[in-house]
Design brief:
Length: about 220
């Protein structure tokens, strides 16, 4: 299991680097190196925590993005998300370095780095609290899935998605790509759509979720939505 986890993470990081530096046409992109270092460090910390304290969740997260029992709408949405994500990484390399279509001041890049760390902290809190946090929308009957309403789940119903809402524009700012920020807003819309559809699946198949929705009013943004 451990070998598979680290192999997957290595391939993922290598792919990120290939897409970013390949589109940029150079390795002389300090912001991209900072992003990769931060991403590697945060990923290692969360993975080591899961390995020690919740290996069942780690095993669940290592499953394919498209799974049996996953509704068709989610398979299509996540496939579209992956294609857009690849294009987004390449866009930022083209924008920030190769063609310099936009300019992001250093202070905004630093804000992006701070936002990245905040988003990863929120993600860690979600992983720590919810052992059923699968990458696919499905009811995990084989694991006895139940409603989680503690920690960040007492504030919003989808804290991991809330973290991603911060994560993606923060990455674009850190990399120095204003067009990447625009692309991140497209992802934010897709995340909102997934949250809405996921809630319908949970209400139909997860006992107690309707009552949880009544207790915790907000999906992603406290006081807003």
């Amino acid at each position: 299991m451990k070998t598979k986890v680290w192999l997957v993470l290595t391939v993922e990081i290598a792919l990120f680097a290939l897409l970013l530096f390949g589109a940029a046409g150079t390795l002389r992109w300090p912001e991209a190196w900072v992003f990769l270092v931060l991403f590697i460090a945060a990923t290692i910390v969360i993975t080591l925590w899961l390995t020690r304290y919740d290996p069942a969740l780690l095993d669940e997260r290592m499953k394919p993005l498209l799974q049996k029992g996953q509704p068709l709408w989610d398979k299509l949405l996540m496939s579209f998300f992956v294609v857009l994500f690849v294009m987004w990484l390449m866009l930022m390399g083209l924008d920030a370095v190769r063609y310099r279509w936009s300019h992001v001041p250093v202070w905004l890049e630093a804000l992006g780095a701070a936002g990245f760390l905040v988003a990863m902290w929120i993600s860690y809190l979600a992983f720590r609290e919810n052992t059923f946090l699968s990458a696919a929308v499905r009811i995990q009957k084989e694991r006895g899935q139940r409603v989680i309403d503690t920690g960040p789940y007492a504030v919003v119903r989808h804290p991991l998605y809330a973290g991603v809402l911060i994560l993606l524009p923060s990455i674009a700012l850190l990399l120095g790509s204003a067009w990447g920020v625009v692309g991140a807003l497209v992802f934010d819309v897709l995340i909102a759509v997934r949250a809405l559809n996921e809630e319908r699946e949970l209400e139909r198949g997860l006992e107690g979720y309707s009552e949880y929705r009544q207790r915790v009013r907000y999906r992603l943004l406290p006081g807003v939505w």
